[in-house]
Amino acid sequence: MYQSWTLAKGGAAKALVAGAVRLVAAGAACFVAARIAALRRDTERLQAEAVERKKALTACRAQAFRCARAQRRSERALGEQQAQVAYLNRAVILGELCGAIAHELNQPLAAILANAQAARRCLARDPADQSLLEPILDDIVEADRHAAAVIHHLHLLFLHGEAQLRPLEINAVVGQALQLARCALDAQAVQVHVSLGTGLPPVRGDSVQLQQVLLNLVVNACQAMRATPPETRQLAIQTETGTGNTVRVSVADRGPGIAADALERIFEPFFTTRPQGLGFGLSVSRAIIDAHGGQVEAANDGREGAVFRITLPPAGG
C-alpha cells in the first residue's frame, strides 16, 4: 500500500515536473518569439531609418553640389564684375587725362606738320637743298614714332582682357605711367621728383594693371594739391628694395594729407573725399595689388601731405 502510494506520488511529481518544464519551455518560446518579433520590428525600423538617411544624404549631396556650383557661378560673376569695375576705373582715369593725352599727341603731330612744311620749302628751292632734307625726315620719323607709342600705350590701357602676368621691371612701369601723366602734371605745375632704385628684382605682374594703380595715385595726388600754392606742389616717386627682397614703390604728395577718419576708410569701395569722385579708384587699386600678392597702404607724411606705399613680391618669390 505504502509502496503504491509512493509510486503514485513519484509519478505525480514527475508529471508536475514535466508540466513545469513544458510551461517553462512554452514561456521561453513565447519570450524568444516576442524578442524575435521585437528585434524584427527594430531591424525593420532601423532599415527604414537607414533608407531615409540615405535619401537625406543623397539630397544633401545634391544640395551641396548645387551650392558648390552656385558658389562657383557667384565667384565667376564677382570676378567678372571686379574686372569690369577695374576697366571702368581705367577709362575714368584716361578720361581725366584726356586733355593731357591730347596735348601729348598734339606735340608730335605739330612737329610732323612743321617739318613737312620745311621739307616742302626745301624742295621748292631751285636747286633743292638736299642736305637739309635728311634731318627733317629724321625728325618726322621720330615724331611719328612718339605719336605711335602714345597711341599704342592708350590702346593697351583700353583693352579689356585677362591679366597677363609676367616678369616686369618696376622702374619701366613707373616710367610708362609718368609718360602718360606728364602733361597733366605740367598743366598743374606739379614738380615731380623721381628716385629709381638700382638692382631691383623683377616683379611678376600685369604692366597695364600696375600702371593703372600708379596713374590712380598720381591723379589723386594732383587733385589733392589743387588748393596748394603752385610753388609747393611736389610729387615724389621712389622705388627701392624692401624686406625679403620685395620691391617697394612710394608715391608722396605735398597736399593737405588725409583726415584721420578718412584714413581708416580710404580703400573702401565708393568712399571718396572728392565732391565729384566715384569712390572706387583706390579700392580697385588695392584689389589689383592684392591679386599680385602685394600690399598697399596709405599714411600721412611726417612733414606734410600723404604717402602711398606699394609692396610687391619678387617674380621668383
From TrEMBL:
Database matches in SUPFAM superfamilies: ATPase domain of HSP90 chaperone/DNA topoisomerase II/histidine kinase (SSF55874), Homodimeric domain of signal transducing histidine kinase (SSF47384)
PROSITE patterns reported in the protein's UniProt record? HIS_KIN (PS50109)
- Can you tell which superkingdom this protein's organism belongs to? Bacteria
The EC number of this protein is: 2.7.13.3
As its record notes, the protein acts as a catalyst of: ATP + protein L-histidine = ADP + protein N-phospho-L-histidine
Q: Which Gene3D superfamilies match?
A: 1.10.287.130, Histidine kinase-like ATPase, C-terminal domain
Residue ranges of every copy of the Histidine kinase domain listed in the record? 100-316
Q: Name one GO molecular function term.
A: phosphorelay sensor kinase activity
Question: Which InterPro entries does UniProt cross-reference here?
Answer: HATPase_C_sf (IPR036890), HATPase_dom (IPR003594), His_kinase_dom (IPR005467), HisK_dim/P_sf (IPR036097), Sig_transdc_His_kin-like_C (IPR004358)
The residues that cross the membrane are 15-38
Pfam families in the cross-refs: HATPase_c
Q: Which UniProt keywords apply?
A: Membrane, Transmembrane, Transmembrane helix
Protein name from the UniProt record: histidine kinase
